[in-house]
Design goal:
By secondary structure, the protein is an alpha+beta fold. It has 2 domains: 108 residues, Phosphorylase Kinase, domain 1 (2-Layer Sandwich), CATH 3.30.200; 204 residues, Transferase(Phosphotransferase) domain 1 (Transferase(Phosphotransferase), domain 1, Orthogonal Bundle). Helix content is 31%, strand content 11%. The protein has 9 helices and 8 strands. The strands form 3 sheets. The protein has a 4-stranded antiparallel β-sheet with strand order 1-2-4-3, covered by helices on one side. It has a two-stranded antiparallel ribbon with strand order 5-6. Strand 1 and strand 2 form a beta hairpin. The radius of gyration is 20 Å and the shape is globular. The two termini are 23 Å apart. 40% of the residues are buried. The C terminus is likely disordered. Pfam families: Pkinase. This is non-specific serine/threonine protein kinase. InterPro entries: Kinase-like_dom_sf (IPR011009), Prot_kinase_dom (IPR000719), Protein_kinase_ATP_BS (IPR017441), Ser/Thr_kinase_AS (IPR008271).
Length: 355
């Protein structure tokens, strides 16, 4: 078993055809109802739209076992989640910046598809076999039917003030806050409003998030410019934050250039190739919008509602002959619609369920 959750467990399986290790998320039997099954399926469809991104966990297949439990077959990320690292090791500034830029492009990709994550935190960032961060668990609060309060209760340290309000509200800038809070944790070795040796219960953290300024990371090798970027992204008011995930990522690129690090490319589609922020070099990243700002033009945000229409796929711009859009593609995985043969994940789940 790879992980336990309040609504689903994750198992490691060795798939026979094709041969590979996969992670299988199975909804818990005690959480089953018709509405939740439909929501789980909708979640799979939403994540499948984003699986082409190198920093978003790939969905290979989704199905329902004979005992009625829905499950997702996903890319197995062999590296540790960031939650397993940030408290026990000193993550370099260079690595934290790389992770921030790559996750920024992943979050931006989701936003452009009309999908808000709403639970970005170190535990939801896995590490691929190649050492890349991979964002997972999109829209979990929306698919559980338990309401925002349950998910926020588990993720208070990285939640923005507007999601902690009596009537939670949020938009793309809420994800910007949580992304910055995650990068902060990698650098500081603690959550942003955690006081070492002090009272750090849920009520204490909520009070600081709602009222206190963002403290500096406290690391001598973190430049003031990076502390300032994170403080802006974590402004109490959404209006004070970076307007989009790509805007935050470009600010992190500027810090990379300032420190003399290689500038991490932004993995975004449907964008002109322009110089990275703070450099004169083309790194295949995304630039400002045509009107000169970094605001993300969102599709209507997907409401994970079983009675509502399914979202349309994201249209892609056609490339001219010889044109390179800088996108890093993963090999396409073909999933057969035929009944599961013996040895596949579906077969094993059905066999485990019994007659």
């Amino acid at each position: 078993m790879l992980g336990l959750g309040g609504f689903a467990d994750v198992f490691l399986y060795e798939q026979d055809m094709p041969r590979r290790s996969v992670a299988v998320k199975v909804l818990l039997a005690g959480s089953l109802d018709d509405d939740l099954r439909v929501r789980f399926q909708t979640e799979a469809n939403l994540m499948a739209q984003l699986s082409h991104h190198p920093s978003i966990v790939t969905i290979f297949h989704a199905d329902i076992a004979v005992d009625g439990r829905p499950y997702l077959v996903m890319e197995y990320c062999s590296g540790p989640a960031l939650a397993e690292r940030y408290r026990v090791e000193r993550i370099s500034v260079a690595e934290a910046l790389r992770i921030g830029v790559r996750l920024g492009s992943a979050v931006e990709t989701a936003h452009r598809a009309g999908i808000l994550h709403r639970d970005i935190k170190p535990a939801n960032v896995l590490t691929t076999d190649f050492g890349w961060p991979a964002l997972t668990d999109f829209g979990i609060a929306a698919t559980t039917g338990a309401g925002a309060g349950v998910a926020i209760g588990m993720s208070i340290p990285w939640s923005p003030p507007e999601l902690l309000a009596e009537r939670p509200t949020g938009d793309a800038r809420s994800d910007v806050y949580s992304l910055a809070a995650t990068v902060y944790s990698l650098l500081a070795g603690r959550t942003p409003f955690e006081v070492p040796g002090g009272a750090n219960g849920a009520a204490d953290l909520v009070a600081r998030i709602e009222r206190a300024p963002v403290p500096p990371t406290g690391r001598q090798d973190v430049p003031a410019s990076l502390d300032a970027v994170l403080a802006r992204a974590m402004s109490r008011s959404p209006a004070g934050r970076h307007p989009s995930a790509v805007a935050l990522a470009r600010s992190l690129q500027q810090v990379e250039a300032e420190l003399g690090f290689a500038v991490t490319p932004l993995d975004l589609t449907d964008e002109a190739r322009v110089p990275a922020a703070g450099t004169g070099r083309d790194v295949g990243g995304a630039g400002e919008d045509e009107d000169g700002d970094d605001r993300t033009r969102l599709r209507p945000v997907v409401s994970i509602d079983p009675s509502g229409p399914r979202p349309a796929p994201t249209p892609r711009r056609s490339l001219r002959a010889g044109e390179d859009d800088g996108t890093r593609l993963r090999p396409v995985t073909s999933v057969s619609p035929d009944p599961a043969p013996a040895g596949t994940v579906a077969h094993r789940l059905r066999a485990a369920a019994g007659p």
